[in-house]
């Protein structure tokens, strides 16, 4: 009897676990969901007879290793820094591993050992990275098969609030890790534009003037993702004069977050005792510490950004932070968790758009591929669906012997993306090409 082991039962795991519960029941497999919060893990398996919930400290080898030993395949939705612990166990014990996270240097260093043991470590198997790779490579392969020569590639993806649930001046609600939202863009970004290498630092990244038109939705703002250049050889697009991967937000969010950065509210220096501290008092302390009182006082009271600051608790004297010693970034995470939470019936939305320009038979052509997915509610979000389903589908295909690759991979090969994208369509994750 095949056994699937999932580490992590957080926001992104819900639809993955739902999918695996159905597949394990169909195939007479078993499922174990591991999380530090037993109540959370138990709620996700919801009494499925072939599934169990386990709570451990994943950093304790003695608790983690026996679970990996018992599995036929392991899926890690842990914070990226903890993947390596699971990866080392999988390598030592001969288990295949799937994650939705980027291949970091520590995982990358295991490449030869993974291949030598005939294992498959499939990373970047979520939404972005994940579905973006698969859908882009499928489109690129189709154009390449016709003899097209690529000139420009742009790929945009964003987790947003659906229009019908958009009721705040930030035009945003949290559907994934709020810490990642606060820290986004800290390292700046680099990409290729018209044969020029463009480097953008953190303070200039959130430019609301960088916009792209989304079919049936309208204009969204984009900010460049980290290192686009590293994906040029991965996609085989060395001939393209423009290569850009971005994250999408509503323009109001980008303009507001740019000013949040300017007010040093994402600073990571621990310098506030937040026990008993209200949000209003935090802002007062912060602006005084950085000599920003006059800057804030000069903001137009009727402006969108002042509305956004007020929504973030600028004058909130009742909400207490109570998180001990904190940085401004820690407080911003708390603010997002308090103020931008999805309500029970709220819907989030995933938007992805690929834009390609290529030359074929002496003529210039354009191609685009667009995905729009809305969540069901606060729990079964579009984010959870698009991050979790690719992992679940790939795990099933590996256990069935339909994906037989070995080594360290991301999903850029047709053996992976063709069957996974086909099944995603059956779940409503379908691209529309133009």
Structure description:
The protein is α/β, with parallel strands linked by helices. The chain has helices spanning 14-27, 38-45, 61-69, 83-93, 105-108, 111-116, 131-145, 178-183, 202-205, 231-235, 251-262, 279-289, 293-297, 304-311, 328-339, 382-399, 414-426, and strands at residues 3-7, 30-34, 51-54, 73-76, 96-99, 120-122, 149-161, 189-193, 196-200, 211-214, 218-224, 242-249, 272-273, 325-326, 348-360, 363-374, 407-409, 432-433. The strands form four sheets. Strands 3-2-1-4-5-6-17 form a seven-stranded parallel sheet, sandwiched between helices. Strands 10-11-12-7-15-16-18 form a seven-stranded mixed sheet. The chain has a two-stranded antiparallel ribbon with strand order 8-9. The longest helix is centred in the last third of the chain and has 18 residues, at 382-399. 43% of the residues are buried.
